[in-house]
Amino acid sequence: MKLYTSLKDISQPFHKACATIGNFDGVHLGHQMLFSEVGALAHRHGGTSIVVTFDPHPLKVLRPGSIRLISTTEQKIELIEKAGIDVLVVIPFDRDFAATTADEFVDDILIGRIGVKELVVGYDYAFGRGRTGNIEFLKAKGREKGFPVTVIEAHHENGMLVSSTKIRELVAEGRMRDVRHLLGRYYQIRGEVQRGRQRGGRVVGFPTANLQISEEDLCPKRGVYVTQVVYDGRCFGGVSNIGYNPTFGENRLVAETHIFDFDDDIYGKAIKINLLQHLRGEKKFSGPEELAVQIRKDITIAHQVLEEAQKELLLSCEERWSR
Prior knowledge:
This protein is α/β, with parallel strands linked by helices. The chain is built from twelve helices and 14 strands. Helix 6 links the parallel strand 5 and strand 6.
């Protein structure tokens, strides 16, 4: 996949460009349907499949603090590439760009810069200053300028609307199985392993890999999760506590993960943690001994959950999914 992070880097329109536009936070099943349609159209016409998105998310600029994102830009790029798209255009979004009208966006960017021949959008998509670039506008513009517009209707899984808003709600509630149904994969957090107070192994008997979580990011429901840890192309089972470690009176929001059958030194190394199932809420214990007893119980249940999902885990752990 060819990645463009500036419109200025596109020297000429793409060959028979079949494109979709959106924020694509989470790259959920609904987004994947858009990509599939774009890919099919490009194949049919011998053209180029193109995704156009924005960084940062427009709401981060227009209404700071109003949205917590499911995926980082890095994750979004990875997932769109896995969808088999030829070209990804990530447009830098700021207040100057926000002043672009819907007409200007279509004429100058979609047609002039990208050379769109077919456009695919979701049923609720709108863009441009004042969000005037809605579905009816696009259809009218397509008729005027000669590019067909395909609208992908709402998609439901297990009776739930597949949407980024719904997924954020489910993540906050710790409903990771439902999240997986809407994303088509496990919800993932990632980062570099931080040096903590090293009580996990020395005091409690269960060493942990710690990732600091920003209060401004989308944070899953606090508590203990069955997890799958991806490190250096390998997968391991684990249990993670997301919270403030009340037993030891911490005040930092951290994901502490005990990784099964693992003893590598990974301080400063990048890991990815897939959240499979919420086991229990965060609890303050009387001390390290009582906490250790509970962790042993959590680990027993986690092994059962991981064993039941083994076939699925093996598929999701393959390098093409975990990179």
